[in-house]
Write a structure and sequence with these properties.
Elements (H helix, E strand, L loop, with lengths): L1 H7 L6 H26 L9 H5 L2 E5 L4 H12 L3 E6 L2 H14 L5 E5 L2 H7 L5
Parallel strand pairs: 1-2, 2-3
Length: about 130
């Protein structure tokens, strides 16, 4: 009966082994589903209507350059009115005019204040 006999009389795997293999396969499938859902599902999401969700006005600090400027321009593009808070009145006026020119329906208000001075005013060195 050589090698053919070995194939005919193959032992059946123990029940604990089959159940562990099944449990492992289910775990791998669950992890793969979670990874795929994080990669694939967020893509077709439509943008959130910020005006309806948070209100008509947004406060942006540091809108004259960098990340603050990008945030201000994006919020204006999405239709939110802006309160721009910064230290330099000329730069605030420039960004306010830029926003008004690119998004005529958006209102802007500027507030000139140095928030660092307000935060340190109450502290005293001892």
């Amino acid at each position: 009966m050589g090698s053919n006999g070995a194939l005919l009389f193959r032992q059946q795997e123990p029940a604990w082994f089959v159940s562990l293999v099944t449990l492992g396969a289910l775990y791998v499938a669950a992890v793969a589903f979670r990874i795929l859902s994080h990669l694939v599902l967020p893509l077709p999401c439509r943008p959130t209507d910020l005006r309806r969700r948070y209100g008509a006005w947004a406060l942006v600090t540091g809108p004259t350059s960098g990340i603050g400027q990008s945030v201000a321009l994006e919020l204006a593009r999405r239709g939110l009115n802006l309160v721009l808070v910064g230290r330099d009145p000329a730069k605030l006026q420039d960004i306010s005019e830029t926003i008004s020119n690119t998004n005529p329906s958006v209102e802007t208000k500027t507030v000139v204040v140095d928030l660092a001075l307000i935060a340190t005013r109450g502290r005293r060195c001892t």
